[in-house]
Amino acid sequence: MREASPILVQGLVQTILLSLLVVPLGLIGGTALALLSTVRHPLVRWPLMAWVDVFRALPPLVLLVFLYAGLPFAGLELPAWGAVAIGFFLNTGAYYGEILRAGIESVPREQMEAARSTGLTGGQAMAYVVLPQAVRNVLPDLISNTLEVVKLTSIASVVALPELLYQARQAQSVTYNASPIVAAAAVYSVLLWPVVRLLSRLENRQLAARR
Known about the structure:
By secondary structure, the chain is an all-alpha fold. The mean pLDDT is 89. It has helices at residues 5-36, 42-57, 60-70, 80-106, 109-117, 122-137, 139-152, 164-175, 179-210. The longest helix has 32 residues, at 5-36. α2 packs across α4 (80-106), α4 (80-106) crosses α6 and α8 (164-175) packs antiparallel against α9.
């Protein structure tokens, strides 16, 4: 582990940078999908439902391999970072979108009507009144999904992006020892344990508030 620590640190830095990229991308995509879900017109609603269902059903690993190794056959070659960014945007955006949609629907319609009666436009009422309440209502789900997204960054190793798991496997191939993999697992646990505890507290608080 001591010999592999420098390469593992490099992988950890890449994992953190990757998480800082894909989580905001997923949130942006999810917010856009959630806002579009408020449009009731069939020409918007049905394609949106199909989009969300497809990217929730498609395994992220398959999607990533398709973007990185399949698109070059169509003349479009993406770098590893680009393929990961697009893949996570499509996949995690669909999940974040469903969570935020549920949050928006949990806010009573009277809130929107009351906001509009004060002179706010529909967009302002959504941004300043509805969305903050929606996020608060589904905050544990958002954090839980973010936790899953950070863990899912390990699949970036299949496109040779040097994140933590990839570097651990490289170190293992050099040392012929499983210790780097064990060390990577320990790093993931230490890194994500505070988020797990925060999620548990939020869930318990939310359950207590409902009683």
